[in-house]
Amino acid sequence: MAELDGMHAVVTGGASGVGYHLCRRFATAGAKVSMVDIEETALEEAAETLRSEGLEVNPQRADVTSPEAMGELERRATECYGEVRILCNNAGVGIKEAQRRMWSLTSNDWRWGFEVNVMGVANGIRAFLPGMLEHGKSGHVVNTSSGNGGLSSLPTTPIYASTKAAVTSMSEVLHYQLLLEESALQAHVLFPGPHLVNTNILSSMRNRPRDLRDDDEPLAYTSMKDLARASGIQNLQLTEPEEVAETCLQGMLDKKFWILPASEAQDARIKDRTENILARRNPQLPES
After folding, report:
1. How far, in Å, CA of 178 to CA of 199, rounded?
2. CA–CA dist 235, 233 (Å, integer)
3. In this structure, are residues 129 and 141 in contact, taking their beta carbons and an 8 Å threshold?
4. CA nearest 73: which of 138, 84, 57?
5. In which band, very low, low, confident or very high, does the pLDDT at 1 lie, cut at 50, 70 and 90?
6. Beta strand pairing status for 185-190 and 32-37?
7. Measuring CA to CA, which residue among 54, 35, 38, 56 is closest to residue 46?
8. Is 160 assigned a catalytic role?
9. Among 9-23, 33-47, 93-107, 140-154, which is the least confidently predicted range?
10. Is the overall model pTM greater than 0.70, yes or no?
């Protein structure tokens, strides 16, 4: 399969979960993949697994919260595989927040969530878009959001939902600005789903910088099903990361801005929120 034959794709958060499977799917579609993550050991192991399958990937360690690191990543990745045609700003973290009220969350909680989930996207755009615009070829910028916050918000994850609302807004503005530039690049916003995605995002706390930690308490939940229960989600069906990667690739090929899997439950939440806005009606607590 050669939908992306020879294209250079950069994927952040590439060592595990959705990012890993994006790397794998792009590489099987013919792309050369710069596989980016902050965890060097996990990154090398993930890259070696894909290389053993005969796939073209190059691991690159980078911290998406650092503008300087992302600028250096752009230089190294371009030296390795040439001009970038696909950028996936996918790195993200979850906060220990599902059983806490937002006024009890610390400034460090908020800073870490926004530095990775929001500034990580901004830093990726700032580092790579100038070069992608300069070469003038068709390409794709995919920002990973979430139905939680990006479309409607759960009452249990204030930081995560807020960051993903920001990613959706940033992606819409990027889409408009690329149209104004008459660019050959297509912006996309990816909503993994349609169900809670079976990733290890809950373990991202181990990468939280020491200066942004308030304690070393264990997580209140250790699996996505535990998180779903803590958040009041009754449907415990999970979507696997490889399904998300397949949906993402198809959305890119179809030039869809909204890469949003079909979901009656999510569509109902979007409709309810939109109707509340149009009617100037106070939102109600979502049904479990």
Report:
1. 31
2. 6
3. yes
4. 84
5. very low
6. unpaired
7. 35
8. yes
9. 93-107
10. yes
